[in-house]
Amino acid sequence: MPVCDIIAVGASSGGVAALQQVVSHFPRDLPASVFVVLHVSLEGRSILPEILTKAGALPARHPENGCPVERRCIYVAPPGYDLTVLRHRIVLGRGAPGSRHHPGIDALFRSVAGEFGKRVVGVVLSGSLADGAAGLVAIKQRGGMAIVEDPATAQYRGMPDSALASVEADFVLPIGEIGPKLVELATGGIMRASR
Fold it and tell me: Is residue 195 part of a domain?
């Protein structure tokens, strides 16, 4: 199995608890960069970085536009901004006018697919509608891997169902197994997930 050290995760309704479960398995020295998009209100402040930092060993933050991509960090899309990567740097943009999804999961997935190719694993978690499905297709087309939360166990199955209708996932897993699988993929199986 190839080493996937770029982890891109998308979630919506029911996604906070799912994300907490996933990151709780990441060890402090995980040799990967983690990107997270959760659909949130365009207004106000998101405390998701604080929630994810408390849930696991890796620090999470809203990145600044133009900052370099580093390992051992969780980058969380800020409210109202698409989180993308260009030339190994974070790009924050307002996204397409009239888009139904903010921040956009597809925008992140397409971006990392184009930038990192087969080093990417895309993950679709609980959520409604279909954001993330087209992005997973882009990841697979560039040689990356796809993980989808098992729709039968997801709090909201719309996004997992849409992803599975669009792409042949490498793994369809209950939420408790996704974090350990990501650790395995990021380390080539040499590091065990923490608890």
Answer: no
